[in-house]
Amino acid sequence: MSSTAGGSGLGEGSKEQSVETDKPLWLHVTKLGKTFEGGGNVSFKCNYCGGIYKGSYSRVKAHLLKIAGHGIKMCPKITTSQLIEINKQVDEAECRIKRALPKEISLPSTHGSSHASSSSVRVDHSLSFRNEGYQTKKRKGIASSPLEKAFSLQQREELDGEIARMFFSAGLPFNLARNPYYKNAFSFACNNNLAGYVPPGYNALRSKLLERERAHIETLLEPTKGVWKEKGVSLVCDGWTDPQRRPLIKFMVVIENYPMFIKAVNCEREYKDNFFITNLIKEVIVMIGPSNIVQAITDNAPVC
């Protein structure tokens, strides 16, 4: 019993120590508990002025380092010597985080250039080759030729390398290169002056951009939905398996030449008997409108 408890405590302590190493300013406040705002927001008490505040680590940093514009009062009790020491701790933590980040390597050499991309900081492995007596081959005169300058051949090959590495490093299927929107995105970016543009990040893709795209698609589908009541629709459902091998049941409505996807239900850990499938079909009928349904079509499985 004691050894188990000791092992658990060690694991928790290591995790807490790792967090404090990356964010040392948590050691200068006392956490009082999480807030209702969610995320990384907590209620904390400053160990210097005794004030109680709410927020994430960025607010703790703004309070202790006396940074204005973060919606929190600057600590009035920290002395100059304490402020210098806290700044030193923050700088050391940021250096540790930067050293832990994965290092980017240079792109393969193209016919127009043997050096790495200048768009970001990279590890120049060509130095080690030169030190060992290996020299990278260069074609004379191409980098400064009129053809190279007119068509930006070096920049084109460098962009090809960046796009290819995106596929390789993220395990993206090569079939994505056939997606017209993939081509449209890069064509639009290259044909417009978008200096300083930063592609949307993780949160933007999964929230506002996804919601905006769905609302747009719903608007485009309104004319098709408008004729459901006049002509009626066929409700079609079928079992399917996605790439993660999850069992799905898909629902679509069909009217003349306009099939429309309604939804897919993940049936993991569900007993797919006739009652379960019937209830799913009923839910979709209510969603579409019972008066709009002409017939329901399923596959020929015995349970259907």
TrEMBL record:
Residues 1-12 have a biased composition (Gly residues). Residues 1-21 are annotated as: Disordered. Keywords: Metal-binding, Zinc, Zinc-finger. The keyword Protein biosynthesis does not apply. Residues 20-82 form the BED-type domain. It comes from the Eukaryota. One of its GO terms (molecular function) is zinc ion binding. InterPro entries: DUF659 (IPR007021), Znf_BED (IPR003656). The keyword Heme does not apply. It holds the Pfam family DUF659. PANTHER family: OS06G0658400 PROTEIN, OSJNBA0013A04.12 PROTEIN. This is BED-type domain-containing protein.
